Amino acid sequence: MKVKDPSLYNEDLAPLKKEKRNWNWLNYTTVWMGMVHNIVAYETAGSLLGLGMSVWQALATVITANIILILAMWLNSAAGAKYGIPFPVLIRASFGYKGAQLPIIIRAFVAIFWFAVQAYLGSKAVGAVLGALIPGWNGLSSIHFIGLGLNDALAVALFWILHAWVISHGMERVKFFELWAGPLVIVLGLALVIWAITVSNGLGPLFDEPSQLTGGAFWSAFGISVTGLIGTWATLILNIPDFTRFARSQKDQVIGQAIGLPGTAIIFSIMSIITTSGTIIAFGRPIWDPVELLQQFGNPFVLFLGAFALLIATLSVNVAANVVSPAYDLVNLFPQKLNFVKAGLISIVVALFFAPWLWYNNSATIFNVLGAIGGALGPVAGIMIADYYMVARGKYDLASFYKKDGLYAYKNGWNVKALIALVIGLIASFIGLIIPALKELYTYSWFLGIGFGAISYIFLMKSEKISNSNFENVETTI
Prior knowledge:
Blueprint: H1 25-36, H2 39-50, H3 55-83, H4 87-90, H5 92-95, H6 101-133, E1 144-145, E2 148-149, H7 150-167, H8 170-199, H9 203-208, H10 215-232, H11 234-239, H12 241-244, H13 250-283, H14 290-296, H15 300-322, H16 324-333, H17 340-351, H18 363-391, H19 416-434, H20 445-461
Antiparallel strand pairs: 1-2
């Protein structure tokens, strides 16, 4: 019996050695700060006011979503920290080494989609900086290229190149880049909050803006907004092991994520909501696009500093949240041909074909897209969590992840029961779109997906003859 199959193994997929598991709680805090302090997170929180919510309603929505998020993150983080292996390897335990490719491809597709969205929004900050520095830059907008003005197209290209520079040095550069990128955006957020309080003559008027949603209208908006906010991080719920595999200890990743995700995410969302409320008072309408808001001040110095902070923030989140995951996914698909850096560079090239500048527009679109993403990935998260805690009882056979005749071979590499559970979860997620009479259920697509995916997987696996309970040694040599 082979110890490891080369089609399932390379250095990026192998369990990390102890000396490389050196991320402490501060690293996880700053990584999450870098990920949550970004333009999409700012716009998503601020656009709650655009949906008609009051400040208090928006805050309640954000807090609820983040509490649910951290619970899901914690549940799916433990195995990565325990075994030192990434998501594409861990998911072989539930789907089989061949069956795992299906959720891996879905997750990679969604992550690359998000990369495209974030990169486009970040390129607007690049364009704002260049417009403030280079005379005649904005005049290039009269020349059109791939659906963009030439200035915007050049900004997109420059921002893509910046991503390639960060990716080119692997995960270590990601860790150190995140260490200072996240805190920088807090400074910008605080400055905008101070402006909002000043223009409103105190916090009172900001929180007194009435809600346009009452009764059933609010609860419908609340449901789709919570689902949408969770959908923002639906890919990270799956591939959080790609980060926690570097953890020095379980305690480090638990504490670091607790501070970084619900902690700084809620604070940043509060900043966004307060600032957006201030724009209603100052300009008579909610402005949740931070680049547009900075341009309203008419001060080149303010625009330059603010846009630079947004540029760093978006670069930070895009690499950590939307390049790391598809890079590992592609390495898993072609372990003998790709490594992390090559796969990451391929991911950002593919992302260009999503062309978000042709369709990205308003708050309603944001939440509809986020809801669909959450609904698609929720069942996979449910199956992974159910497999680790309920089926495997917290014990995996490390060697079997890299063998075609091991515990996770199932039938020719496919666990048909996991695929059935995935289909059941997807039907539950999108039943509201399939049957008009049940359209309200689509509001909770992620919850239905993760719940039905997990429950159906547990039920189907009860008859599974193979048990993981005999594998006590979590440090099996491969």
